Amino acid sequence: MTTYAIHEQTLADYQAMPTKDLVEFIVENFHEKHRAQLPELIILARKIEEVHHDHNACPTGLNELLQTVYQELESHMLKEEQILFPMLAGGIFPQGPIAVMEEEHEHHEQLIEQLQALTNQCQPPTDACGSWLTLYTQLADFIFDLHQHIALENTVLFKQPAAAAGHHGNGHCCGGCQ
Ligand SMILES: [Fe+2]
Ligand SMILES: [Fe+2]
Q1: Which ligand gives the minimal distance to the CA of 98?
Q2: DSSP 123
Q3: What is the pTM of this model?
Q4: Residue 56 CA, ligand 1 centroid: distance in Å
Q5: Tens digits of per-residue pLDDT, 24-41?
Q6: Left (φ > 0), alpha (ψ -120 to 50) or beta: where does 60 sit?
Q7: How far is the CA of 123 from the centre of ligand 2 (A)?
Q8: Centroid of ligand 1 to alpha carbon of 78 (angstroms)
């Protein structure tokens, strides 16, 4: 699987943010954005599948796949917002729940691969109408945002800051660092 990286300079900026601020940033800039992006994509995909069902490049099943992505992502984001993020913001980094979220991220990456396979990597046919072009442009934007979202959580948010991790040292390990 391809590993998507955040730009180095931006990564340093994110790493310098207090965890509480980073959590708020992710909810506002990624979770809320996906909640706006996906319903629009679903409507557009349904329209293209209805109007162009006899076109050989029609992304048949895209509407259904996007609904699956929306349901799975919404459930995942709610778990983060209601359970994991408040713990992280409070300085607790529970390894079990973090591992579950990371596994779900891997599944999201698989869903992205399915979206790309169904849409010829978001490349519309040469005779595509305006709505089809809009659909694929917006889908490519969503995929880019979701990659960034996942990378930011996996590589920054879920990693315990060095200062906090130091509290587990001195022979008094609480077990949370395993
Ligand atoms: Fe998230
Ligand atoms: Fe996540």
Answers
A1: 2
A2: -
A3: 0.88
A4: 36
A5: 999 999 999 999 999 999
A6: beta
A7: 27
A8: 9
